[in-house]
Specification:
6-stranded parallel β-sheet, Rossmann fold, alpha/beta, 2 domains, 328 residues, single chain, 12 helices, 17% strand
């Protein structure tokens, strides 16, 4: 019987981290011979469209992404709908991207929603994906530990030779810091904006790749709607990527930069640092009192010349496909 892979997530056509992971899952599942569809299930018609032609006879694999914005409530209704109309589910897999309640904009409502909806979803799913050991330890407080597997986020940049990677040396280094992502409170971009004069004393430019211009000064170099190749080029040719987040369950942008040989300046609150292959090539600083050791940044760049291949192999498509195959 054919495999049908349905992914439930918010804004499937967006370009965020969750959407990137969903795209990688679709790529892997297509390679396994599955027919893939993605939906945010915001309309009843979407529920019906997903079953058109399935007739309850196909092997159905469901991936659910996130734990907020009511995506898990829609996923819960979707699972119940499957059971009611008799669609056979081979496996239901949930990747919560768990954030501690206190890191949400409204902690009380985040906690209330989690206990009313997400706890029930955790009972119904077959597997829960944690992206780090820290996230697994948080999830085991609420869910059956036997359901939880650690699978780090996949790297979407796998091909070399498609970008213009500069050859760096003490006399030839790029002249900008790079920021990438949505300007949301937990990203803590305000720490860079508030101390912009310091950062510009180290490098003459800060380039900000985002589709949200709110509260970003006009004198910052804002880049919107960049293509994947353009983003790879921006990563590869930056002096360093800055990740000042108060909390990141993983930090896909840090992984992308490292895979292209670019150092990452970050806080101690990003999940990717627990993986041994990247631990000593992250420059951890206090963003309230920033100080950048440019010599250390250049040393990291030199180390990444050889180390980035190890990083690509560990987080790459082949490793991710192997991890997913163990779940389905």
């Amino acid at each position: 019987m054919p495999k049908i892979c349905i992914q439930i997530l918010n804004n499937p056509q967006s370009t965020g981290g969750i959407q990137s992971i969903a795209q990688q899952i679709e790529k892997v599942m297509t390679g396994f011979g599955a027919v893939c569809e993605s939906s945010d299930l915001t309309k009843i018609s979407m529920f019906l469209d997903l079953f058109r032609g399935h007739n309850g006879k196909d092997d159905l694999i469901v991936f659910i992404h996130g734990m907020s914005n009511f995506v898990t409530l829609r996923a819960l209704l979707f699972i119940l709908f499957c059971k009611i109309i008799g669609v056979r589910s081979k496996k239901i897999i949930w990747q919560p991207h768990f954030h501690p309640f206190e890191k949400h904009n409204r902690p009380f409502f985040a906690s209330l929603y989690f206990h009313l909806v997400n706890r029930l979803l955790g009972i119904l799913v077959d597997k829960i994906i944690a992206i780090t050991a820290l996230e697994k330890s948080m999830l085991t407080k609420f869910f059956d530990i036997r359901k939880i597997e650690i699978i780090p986020n996949p790297l979407r940049f796998n091909e070399e030779g498609t970008i213009n990677v500069k050859k760096y040396g003490s006399e030839d280094r790029c002249d900008y810091f790079l920021l990438v992502g949505r300007n949301e409170p937990n990203k803590n971009f305000s720490a860079i904006i508030e101390k912009k004069s310091y950062w510009l004393s180290v490098m003459p430019k800060i380039k900000f790749v985002t589709n949200e211009r709110k509260e970003i000064p006009d004198d910052m170099d804002i880049l919107s709607n960049v293509s994947e190749v353009q983003l790879m080029d921006l990563y590869a040719n930056a002096f360093a990527l800055i990740v000042p987040s108060d909390y990141e369950a993983f930090s896909l942008v840090a992984l992308e930069a490292l895979s292209l040989g670019t150092p990452v300046i970050c806080s101690a609150n990003i999940g990717i640092q627990e993986f041994q292959c990247v631990q000593d090539v992250l420059l951890l600083i206090d963003f309230d009192n920033p100080f950048i050791d440019c010599e250390r940044v250049m040393e990291i760049r030199e180390e990444l010349v050889s180390r980035r291949h190890e990083i690509v192999n560990f987080f790459g498509e082949a490793a991710y496909a192997k991890n997913l195959s163990s779940l389905i």
